[in-house]
Design goal:
Strand order of the largest sheet of chain B: 2-3
Distance between the termini of chain B: 49 Å
Largest interface: A-B, 54 and 49 residues
Order of helices and strands of chain B: HHEEEHH
Helix content of chain B: 55-70%
Largest sheet of chain A: 2 strands, antiparallel
Largest sheet of chain B: 2 strands, antiparallel
Number of helices of chain A: 6
Structural class of chain A: mainly alpha
Helix content of chain A: over 70%
Structural class of chain B: mainly alpha
Strand content of chain B: 5-15%
Oligomer: heterodimer
Shape of chain B: elongated
Distance between the termini of chain A: 50 Å
Number of domains of chain A: 2
Shape of chain A: elongated
Number of strands of chain A: 3
Number of strands of chain B: 3
Strand order of the largest sheet of chain A: 2-3
């Protein structure tokens, strides 16, 4: 029964982070494909890293009561890619979230992009100028503005 | 030593991709991203110190003797901290490269990056 604790904790953490992502539209709720490719690339790289470590005999799987014991490869439990995807998703959400906070505190950065980005830029100025509470939707304009040019 | 040497190429690849993505950003965006990555790295390193220790003490995984440097933070071997560093460098960089692909096609990768170029990109 305890075998699913680790996997369950990982999935619950990913779920909670998805709620944060959805609420502030940081990654998958902003550019789904970019988020998927970024998390997929990161997970793949870290997984190769793990396999190299296993190949050199650095890591071994513990015999924990908290793990399912299901293996994808020798010494590679099914939980490992889930953990690596979690780590990559966390990295993306933290960096993009901090970036959003910095953009709010220093509207100068946003305004350089707003001059060209038209409507989205206008929204960014409004967000920088006022709004204390529900400003997340407006701030998105400021942050997203540099990407409008793409 | 083995574990540390294994980390080197992966951190190197992540760093190169992070630098490429930063070079393609306008100056203001680049400074903000660099700061966000630094703060994000600090957060992830702190979380790694705590949760790696928890995961190791829960017996989820172990390390062969003689492959590590030996230094630990909590129970976490210092080499383990290369994982969050690589992730925080690589993943947001790939995101940026996908969201805003390179403008134009003929521009050489190592072209000097001037201030006027940055202004041009923002407009």
């Amino acid at each position: 029964m305890t075998g699913f604790v680790y996997l369950g904790a990982l999935l619950a953490s990913i779920g909670a982070m998805a709620l944060v992502d959805a609420r502030w539209r940081l990654a998958f709720w902003r550019h789904p494909w970019a988020a998927a490719i970024a998390v997929g690339t990161g997970t793949a790289l870290l997984l190769v890293w793990d396999l190299v470590g296993i190949g050199f005999g650095v890591f071994f799987r513990g015999d924990s009561v908290w793990a399912t014991g299901v293996l994808l490869a020798p010494e590679l439990p099914v939980e490992e890619p889930v953990f690596l995807a979690f780590l990559c998703y966390l990295s993306l959400v933290v960096v993009l979230g901090v970036e959003r906070l910095l953009a709010r505190r220093r509207p100068v950065d946003g305004s350089s992009a707003t001059t060209a980005a038209g409507a989205a830029g206008g929204a960014g100025v409004a967000g920088a100028a006022g709004a204390v509470g529900p400003s997340a939707t407006v701030d998105r304009g400021a942050d997203a503005a540099p990407e409008v040019r793409a | 030593m083995t574990y540390l040497l294994i980390c080197v190429p992966f951190v190197l690849v992540s760093t190169i991709i992070a630098v490429i993505s930063l070079r393609r950003m306008p100056a203001g965006t680049r400074a903000r991203r660099a700061l966000a990555v630094a703060i994000g790295a600090a957060v992830l390193l702190a979380l790694t110190a705590v949760f790696d220790t928890v995961m190791i003490s829960a017996g989820l995984f172990g390390y062969a003797e003689g492959t590590r440097l030996g230094a630990t933070i909590g129970l976490a071997p210092v080499e383990d901290f290369a994982y969050p560093i690589a992730a925080v460098l690589l993943v947001p960089a790939v995101w940026t490269l996908v969201v805003s692909p390179r403008r134009g096609s003929g521009r050489p990768e190592r072209a000097p990056h001037t201030a006027s170029d940055d202004d041009g990109r923002a407009s």
